[in-house]
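Why does residue order matter? Because the sequence determines the fold. Keep that principle in mind as you read this record.
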Amino acid sequence: MFSFSITGDRGHIYWSSNQKQKAHGFFIGKLKLRYKSGFKRDVPFRGFGIPGVDFSYVVHVNKNKGGKVYLTGSAEDSFEDRFPVLPGFFVSF
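Structure:
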């Protein structure tokens, strides 16, 4: 299970993953920040998941006019099964 949220007060994006499978896995992805001003920034990241343990990641955003953050990437378990993020997944800030 993956959750993706943004705080409303400090301009940070908090991304987290909770490994629900019984095997180890990892996530490779990118946060694509798209500001209403037209500015774009991509933040690559990766994480390793252990069953029952959360992985989290924090990115600072400039909230002056807001925008959208898209999450791309995929998770892979130790059995080499891939679980991609659904296309077009985003949150607004």
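The two ends are 22 Å apart (CA to CA).
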